[in-house]
UniProtKB/TrEMBL annotation:
Source organism, top-level taxon: Bacteria
Record-linked SUPFAM superfamilies: Metalloproteases ('zincins'), catalytic domain
Native organism: Brevundimonas vitisensis
Name of the protein: Metallopeptidase family protein
Short name of one Pfam family: Zincin_1
InterPro entries: Zincin_1, Zincin_1_sf
Length: 138
């Protein structure tokens, strides 16, 4: 790269946690209505990385391997007569998503954040990773 090409990048910073949250909210708001309403009161949270306890529980040593996580009782397993479940949460992990985005090169950051968000919403609906992969392949 020439010095001129590099000079355009010297004043840029990585998107903040708040920037990521805004992009995720826009992606959620752009989902078709049936998905938004079925998602209910799911909470979307953005952190730099998953915490150590989460990584250990999942058997993940490299925190860059986890871009998102659904935490809660999926809607197919909820008992409407039982005690209220804690709110479902979707975690998006900023640093691993940025790392993956840099590796891809062919998609926008907004597209990647939306992809991770939709994947985690799939878990909220009770889909497994294999189910989600099949849907994406179609």
């Amino acid at each position: 790269m020439t010095q001129t090409a590099l000079s355009g990048w010297t004043d840029l910073t990585a998107p903040s946690l708040d920037d990521f949250a805004a992009i995720a909210r826009a992606a959620f708001d752009a989902l078709p209505e049936p998905f938004r309403s079925l998602s209910g009161e799911v909470v979307i949270r953005v952190d730099d990385f998953a915490d150590e306890a989460t990584l250990a529980e999942m058997g993940i040593e490299d925190p860059f391997e986890l871009t998102g996580l659904y935490h809660g009782v999926d809607i197919g397993r909820r008992d409407s007569l039982g005690p209220a479940a804690e709110p479902s949460r979707i975690f998006l992990y900023r640093r691993p998503i940025l790392d993956e985005w840099c590796d891809h090169g062919g998609i926008t950051l907004s597209e990647l954040i939306a992809h991770v968000l939709i994947h985690e919403i799939g878990h909220h609906f009770g889909l497994t990773d294999d189910d989600i992969d099949r849907v994406e392949a179609e």
